[in-house]
Amino acid sequence: MPSDRETFWHADSYVVIGDSKQKPFPVLTYGALKARGSTVYAVDESAAQIEGDPVYRTLYELPGPVDAAVLEVAREDTAGWVERVADAGISNLWIHMGRDTPEALELAGQRGLAVRHGTCAVMYLTGGYHKIHKWIEQLRGQY
């Protein structure tokens, strides 16, 4: 039976949120979702295109609804983006490993979001060296 983290990746549509002026956009997550055939949009306040696709500055600019959001911004910006995700009506949220904060997690709980955090999103989507993360997390019973 798939874990809660695994079922997050069964949605049909996603928004991947990054901030290129602070850290490169999470293209591995974005590209892997596209390769799976998911509808995926990029939100980044400081980029015009990701992999040749348009980038939106806000969640309200997206051309259609999304089932889930993947958040990979600087830790100090995570709580603000959790608020924006909730305000946009997106109830499923993945906060990438090392980006979660107690404040962001508390806020997500208060807003009723289903949050996955604490692990690398990419290990669920790609192979390569990310399989090592997957193997370690499976051994720890955290996959």
Write the layout of secondary structure elements.
Blueprint: H1 4-8, E1 13-18, H2 27-35, E2 39-44, E3 49-50, E4 53-56, E5 68-72, H3 75-87, E6 92-95, H4 102-110, E7 114-117, H5 130-139
Parallel strand pairs: 1-2, 1-5, 2-4, 5-6, 6-7
Antiparallel strand pairs: 3-4
Helix pairs in contact: 3-4
Could you explain the architecture of this structure?
With 143 residues, the protein is α/β, with parallel strands linked by helices. It has one domain (4-138): NAD(P)-binding Rossmann-like Domain (Rossmann fold), CATH 3.40.50. It contains five helices and seven strands, in the order αβαββββαβαβα. Strands 3-4-2-1-5-6-7 form a seven-stranded mixed beta sheet, with helices on both faces. Helix 3 runs parallel beside helix 4 (102-110). The chain is globular. The chain starts with a helix and ends with a helix. The mean pLDDT is 88.
Tag the structure with descriptive keywords.
32% helix, Rossmann fold, globular, seven-stranded mixed sheet
Counting structural domains, the number is 1
Strand order of the largest sheet: 3-4-2-1-5-6-7
Number of helices: 5
Radius of gyration: 14 Å
What is the N-to-C order of secondary-structure elements (H for helix, E for strand)? HEHEEEEHEHEH
Distance between the termini: 12 Å
Question: Which CATH architecture would you pick?
Answer: 3-Layer(aba) Sandwich
The average pLDDT is 88
Q: Which class in CATH terms?
A: Alpha Beta
Q: Approximately how much helix is present in the residues?
A: 25-40%
Count of extended strands:
7
Q: Give the strand content.
A: 15-25%
What structural class do helix, strand and pairing data support?
alpha/beta
Fourth-level CATH superfamily: NAD(P)-binding Rossmann-like Domain
Overall outline? globular
Quick one: biggest sheet? 7 strands, mixed
